[in-house]
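Chapter summary example.
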Amino acid sequence: MKYLYHLTMLLSAMLLTACIKDEPKNMECDVLEAWVEGDDLAPYFSQKTDMRISDVSSSTQRLTFTVWQRAGLPAMPVKFALTPGATITPANGSVQDFSKGPVEYTVTSEDGQWHRTYTVEFRETMLPTNRYDFEQFELSANGKYYVWYYQPDGGGKEYIWASGNDGFMIASPNAAAVDYPTVPDADGVDGYCIKLTTRSTGSWGRMFKKPIAAGNFFLGAFDTQYALTNTLKTTQMGIAYTKQPVKVTGYYKYSPGETFTDKDFNEVKDRTDEPSIYSVLYVNHDAQGNEIMLHGDDVLSSPYIVSKAQVASVPPASEWTPFEMTFEGTTPIDADLLAKRGYNLALVFSSSKTGDTFEGAVGSTLYIDKVEITFIGE
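The structure predicted for these 378 residues follows.
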C-alpha cells in the first residue's frame, strides 16, 4: 500500500509539473495605454489629459500626443502599459527625441512569436484645414478597409476622420474593401468623394440584433472595444479646434434603400430611409479637468454642447446638390478656452438617420464631397 501511495504521489507531481510546463505563454502584443508624466513636461501640453492616451484600440498602430509646438521639444520618456508578458523596444520609459519626427516601437508577445509595430508621434497643436475634398485615402494597416487623412502644409498624415468600417469587419471579415459601408468613389464633384452605404451584417448581425451597418463618416475616432457590448460608445465624436464655427457647406447625392427594417430586421411598411448631416461644438473638459468625449448616444443631447448645426431635410437627389447648415446656440463661447483647444468640433454624415439604433434600409447610399467649415473672422 505504501508503494502505491508513493507511486500515486510521484505521478501527481509529474502531472502537475507537466501542466505548468505546458501552459501556453501569452500570444498578445498590444499597447493598452501610453503616457508622459512629470510636472516639468506638462507646460508643453494644452491639457494634462493630453499627456495620456488611454483605452488604445486593438486596431490602432499610431499613437499621437498633441503639444503646443514640436520645435524645441525636449526628449520625452514615453511609458506603456502592455498586454501581460509582452515586451517593447525601445525600452519602456526610455528617453526618445520626438522633435525630429515619429519613433517606432515594436511590441513582442510573451511567447516571442508575435509582434506589432507602433508609431508614436508628438504633433503640434494646429487647426485642421477647413476644406475637405476627400482625395487622400489608403487601405487600413490590416488591408481590410479604407481610411482617410489630410496632409497639412508641414507634411505628414493627419488621421482626423473615422468611420464604422472597423466594426463592420467583425460582422463581415471576408468582405472586400469596396463592399464596406464607407468607401471612396471616383464620381465626385471633381475627383473622389465619400460614398456611404447601409449594408447588411448578415446572420451575425441578426443574432446580435444589429442587422445593418449604416455608412458613417465623422471627425473623431472609432474604438472597437465596445463593438459587441455598447455599440454607440465606439464612435468618439469630435476633434479640438481653436476657431468658432459659423456654418458648414458641401455637396451631396442620396438614394434610399428599397425596404426599411427595424432592429429585428422586420420590414416597416410606409417608412422611407433618410440620411443625416449634422455638427456640434462642445466643451471637451469638465470643471474638474476630466476629459469629455461625446459618442453616438449623446452627441446631439449632451449638456456640454454649446452650439449645433443640422441639415433639417436631405431629400433624395441623383445629381450633386448643395447643402448648408448654420450653428445655433445660446451658450457664450469662452475665447481663452477656445484658444487653449478647450472645445471639440464633431461633424457627422450617415446614410441612415436611425442607423445608430440599427433601423434603416439596406442599400441606402449617401455621397458627400467638397465640405467646407466657415469660422468667425473668415
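To summarize the output: DSSP finds four helices and 28 strands in the chain.
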